[in-house]
Design goal:
Helix content: 40-55%
Order of helices and strands: EHEHEHEHEHHHHHHH
Strand order of the largest sheet: 2-1-3-4-5
Shape: globular
Number of helices: 11
Radius of gyration: 17 Å
Distance between the termini: 44 Å
Strand content: 5-15%
Largest sheet: 5 strands, parallel
C-alpha cells in the first residue's frame, strides 16, 4: 500500500480550513497534517511537517500566498524540502496566481470548485503533474501573457535547445492539451508524448507543465488567443 499524501491547508478563514480538512481527511490516500491562518505560519508549518502538497490561499493577512509560495519553492540554503504548492483563489483571474505559477506553484483551484475537483487536484499535484486542465487556467495565463512583451531575450533563445518535435509538444502543452490529446493531435503513442514533455522540462530547466506554459507564452512560442 502506498504512503498517503501529506497535505497542509493555509487559509485565513477557519471555516474554509475546516471544510477542506474534513473533506480531504476522509480520503484513505490523503493525510491532513496541519493548518495555518496566514502565509508566514504556513511556511513555518511546512518546514516542520514536510507535507507533499500545500493548499495555499492567495489573499491572506500578514503574508500573502504568493510570498509564502516563493519562500517554500525557493528555500534558503540548508532547507531541502520543497512541497508542491496548489494555490486557492476566489477569483478566476488573479495576477497573484500568475506570479505564483512563475514562482513554481503547480497550479491553482477556485475555492468554489466541486469537492471532487479539490480531491482530484491534490492527487494530480502530488503525482508531480500540474493542474492546468480547467479552461480558466488557460484564460488566466493568456490574460497576463497578453500584458507582457513576448518573444524577446533569454526565453526565446532557450527555445533553440528544443527539437522540432519537442517544440510542437510544448506548443500543445501551452494550449492546455493533456498528454492524451497531444498524442491524438500528433499521432504518437502517449508514452512517447510523456518522454517528449520530460525532455522539454529538462532542457529548459522547468519544474513542471505549469512553468512550461508560462515559458511558452513569455518566449513568444504561443501568442494569447491562438
Amino acid at each position: 500500500m502506498s504512503t498517503p499524501t501529506r497535505v497542509i491547508i493555509v487559509d485565513d478563514q477557519a471555516m474554509v480550513r475546516a471544510g477542506f480538512a474534513a473533506l480531504l481527511a476522509a480520503q484513505s490516500d490523503i493525510d491532513v497534517v496541519g493548518e495555518a491562518p496566514d502565509g508566514a505560519q504556513g511556511v513555518e508549518l511546512s518546514r516542520r511537517t514536510h507535507p507533499d502538497v500545500v493548499l495555499m490561499d492567495v489573499r491572506m493577512p500578514e503574508m500573502d500566498g504568493l510570498e509564502a509560495a516563493r519562500r517554500l519553492l525557493a528555500p534558503p540554503p540548508g532547507v531541502t524540502h520543497r512541497p508542491r504548492v496548489l494555490m486557492l483563489t476566489t477569483f478566476d483571474v488573479d495576477d497573484y496566481v500568475y506570479e505564483a505559477l512563475r514562482a513554481g506553484a503547480s497550479g491553482f483551484l477556485l475555492k468554489d470548485a466541486p469537492p471532487v475537483d479539490l480531491i482530484a487536484a491534490v492527487r494530480v499535484v502530488a503525482s508531480g503533474d500540474a493542474l492546468l486542465a480547467p479552461s480558466v487556467t488557460r484564460r488566466l495565463i493568456a490574460d497576463f501573457a497578453r500584458q507582457r512583451p513576448a518573444g524577446r531575450g533569454k526565453p526565446a533563445l532557450r527555445l533553440k535547445a528544443l527539437t522540432e518535435r519537442e517544440t510542437e509538444v510544448l506548443t500543445l502543452v501551452a494550449r492546455g492539451q493533456s498528454n492524451t490529446e497531444i498524442a491524438e493531435t500528433l499521432v504518437l503513442a502517449e508514452q512517447t508524448v510523456k518522454t517528449h514533455v520530460s525532455r522539454v522540462l529538462t532542457k529548459l530547466d522547468l519544474r513542471d507543465r505549469a512553468q512550461a506554459v508560462v515559458f511558452a507564452y513569455e518566449s513568444g512560442l504561443v501568442a494569447p488567443g491562438e
